[in-house]
Amino acid sequence: MKNFKFKINGTDYSVDINEVEGQEIKLDVNGTPYTVTVDKEIRQPKHTTIVSSRPAPRVASAHGEVQRGSAPAAAPAPAAGAAVAGNKVQSPLPGTILDVFVNVGDAVKAGQRVVLLEAMKMENNIEADCDGTVKAVNVRKGDSVLEGDTLIVIG
To answer: Which long-range contacts (CB under 8 A, 24 or more apart) does 46-52 make?
Structure first.
């Protein structure tokens, strides 16, 4: 699920895209469900593997066991005006942000918990994969993220 914020004629809208299949999109606008049909089929990109020398972010469940991905997550499309140089902590899977534990300017250590992500009804601690200073925080509590979305940038 992906969340977007719109302002149309001075009115704020929160749009959650729940499902895209062919020409049909199932979404919620300010909590009200709608099914939208578009004029062209929307192609969902298949999983793309990006080869990188940087390891995938470490993920630990809130209950302590540590899991590591074997391949880096696919890179998301960059947001307009959001290019920040640094080490990106990315979402290892789709889910909802339950909490963000750092702010821009905070010093972090490798292995420090930076975000709490709920995915498949499990709480997952997303940890910094390097020491540094937080350069950008791209998510807020309650945001929906997809696999590979950049959550935090550490420089």
So the answer is: 47/74, 48/74, 49/74, 50/74, 50/75
- Residue 46 carries which side chain, given as an amino acid letter? K
* Element of type H or E holding 109: none
127 touches 115 (CB < 8 A): no
Number of other residues whose CB lies within 10 A of the CB of residue 81: 6
Cα separations (Å) of 124 from 1, 127, 154?
17, 9, 19
pLDDT over 60 (residue 39): yes
Give whole-number Cα distances, 22 to 35, 37, 130, 152, in Å: 12, 9, 40, 32
What confidence tens digit (pLDDT) does each residue in 51-67 have? 444 555 555 555 544 44
Full strand arrangement of the beta sheet holding 32-37: 2-8, 11-21, 24-29, 32-37
